[in-house]
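During the no-cost extension, the postdoctoral fellow (Dr. R.K.) reprocessed legacy sequence entries with the updated structure-token encoder. One reprocessed record is reproduced below for audit purposes.
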Amino acid sequence: MSEFKLKYPVTVDGEEITSLNLRRVNVLDLEVMEKQQGQLTRSVTLLSQVSERSPDVIRQMDAADFNAASDLVADFLEYPRSGSDR
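Re-encoded structure tokens follow.
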């Protein structure tokens, strides 16, 4: 799990959110994301899944925070390479 601190906190339903706890992506997250229409909606869905926050929270995020958090989640999808080529 990785904590992502928001540069621009958001308030949703009276709760101020200053950070997101992001877990690694699993296959179920990818399946849920793939069911969505449009790249932006897929990104919102995936970030919602791995942060365990509602899509409404993600939609309220500043675009800079959204992009940075999305980049961090994309890094979770990287498969570390060993010395061999497969």
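The chain has one domain: 2-76. The two ends are 28 Å apart (CA to CA). The remaining legacy entries will be reprocessed before the final report is submitted.
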